[in-house]
Amino acid sequence: NTRADSFQNPDTESDRIFFGVPVFSYKELQDATNNFDPTRKLGDGGFGIVYYGTLRDGREVAIKHLFEHNYKRVEQFMNEIEILTRLRHRNLVSLYGCTSRHDHELLLVYEYIPNGTVASHLHGELARVGLLTWPIRMQIAVDTATALSYLHASNIIHRDVKTNNVLLDINFSVKVADFGLSRLLPNDVSHVSTAPQGSPGYLDPEYFQCYRLTDKSDVYSFGVVLMELISSMPAVDAARERDEVNLANLCMKKIQKGKLGELVDPSFGFESDQVVKRMVTSVAELAFRCVQGDNELRPSMDQVLEALKKIQSGNYEYENLEKGDDGGNVIPSTSQEEVQPPPSASRNSSQIGILMNNKLSSQKSFSEKWESESTTPNVSG
């Protein structure tokens, strides 16, 4: 049965199974959370509150209690169930079950991931100086890219990629969560036309302006996640200067001025550890490419993942990369296409070279992308 059939015909739902997942009674989940005890609240968002709970069989769970019970919420509820029952991946959160959509309360039951969100560790209540080392952040980036690459291969666009939706287990392994806004693309379709939804600071400006959702919209959002991992700064901060409220704008501005070091979390030892410096610089360039205003200039998620794995392994033997100058700055090779830093940055201060394999480059040169102010989006969301 299709989702529409199930929605219109309640007879298609058995008493205990819905879309292949167990159906819990409201009473079971009420008991599991001690009547939705406020002290068990794990977090909340635009669509509901998440509580910690323990099922009768002893399993620890996270239970999302959706706000309101209207048609839109039912659609999001069923959308998340339908998508998560299609997917099985070590870096995606598992859905254990749900309440019946005919219940007065809509609840989703997930595996409990005990170590909070990436956002909470970077700039929230779990943030501790030096706890999220650069190697851990690099692995978080690879794990998240792996999950998104898997989604895209399954014709699914997440549509709400952000550090609040990237959960961590006790080993800091990633579980990507929250598929309420996700969209399943029909085969052989490059985009869908839909009203923009997502989170401020992460929303693809081309999707926001043109209502065209593509897999490159997730790539843009992931670029902002990479910037957070580099800087430990939130994606949106109203306390920053007006043109720097959005992290994507702030990072591109600093990079174009050759001031990457001002962005980097001080705990990395960016200026003293040349290995870290080259890795962070490589990831910064990749993030820069991900947030290009024109989605055709962004790499695919598969290309992003491939690049991250190469950076993680220390493989810098790219065709168009020299070893760098004595100060550790990366200098692009003149044996390939000549790439100049932007006019506002001196050659000595430029830390962004051409670090990716040529396969990641578009037909337009990187210098064109540097010079085009139109590729510095104002992501107001």
Automatic annotation (TrEMBL):
<feature type="compositionally biased region" description="Polar residues">
    <location>
        <begin position="345"/>
        <end position="354"/>
    </location>
</feature>
<feature type="region of interest" description="Disordered">
    <location>
        <begin position="321"/>
        <end position="354"/>
    </location>
</feature>
<keyword id="KW-0418">Kinase</keyword>
<keyword id="KW-0808">Transferase</keyword>
<dbReference type="InterPro" id="IPR008271">
    <property type="entry name" value="Ser/Thr_kinase_AS"/>
</dbReference>
<feature type="binding site">
    <location>
        <position position="64"/>
    </location>
    <ligand>
        <name>ATP</name>
    </ligand>
</feature>
<dbReference type="InterPro" id="IPR001245">
    <property type="entry name" value="Ser-Thr/Tyr_kinase_cat_dom"/>
</dbReference>
<keyword id="KW-1133">Transmembrane helix</keyword>
<dbReference type="Pfam" id="PF07714">
    <property type="entry name" value="PK_Tyr_Ser-Thr"/>
</dbReference>
<keyword id="KW-0812">Transmembrane</keyword>
<dbReference type="GO" id="GO:0004674">
    <property type="term" value="F:protein serine/threonine kinase activity"/>
</dbReference>
<feature type="region of interest" description="Disordered">
    <location>
        <begin position="362"/>
        <end position="381"/>
    </location>
</feature>
<keyword id="KW-0325">Glycoprotein</keyword>
<comment type="similarity">
    <text>Belongs to the protein kinase superfamily.</text>
</comment>
<dbReference type="InterPro" id="IPR000719">
    <property type="entry name" value="Prot_kinase_dom"/>
</dbReference>
<protein>
    <recommendedName>
        <fullName>Protein kinase domain-containing protein</fullName>
    </recommendedName>
</protein>
<feature type="domain" description="Protein kinase">
    <location>
        <begin position="36"/>
        <end position="311"/>
    </location>
</feature>
<keyword id="KW-0067">ATP-binding</keyword>
<dbReference type="GO" id="GO:0005524">
    <property type="term" value="F:ATP binding"/>
</dbReference>
<dbReference type="GO" id="GO:0005886">
    <property type="term" value="C:plasma membrane"/>
</dbReference>
<keyword id="KW-0723">Serine/threonine-protein kinase</keyword>
<dbReference type="InterPro" id="IPR017441">
    <property type="entry name" value="Protein_kinase_ATP_BS"/>
</dbReference>
<dbReference type="InterPro" id="IPR011009">
    <property type="entry name" value="Kinase-like_dom_sf"/>
</dbReference>
<keyword id="KW-0472">Membrane</keyword>
<keyword id="KW-0732">Signal</keyword>
<keyword id="KW-0547">Nucleotide-binding</keyword>
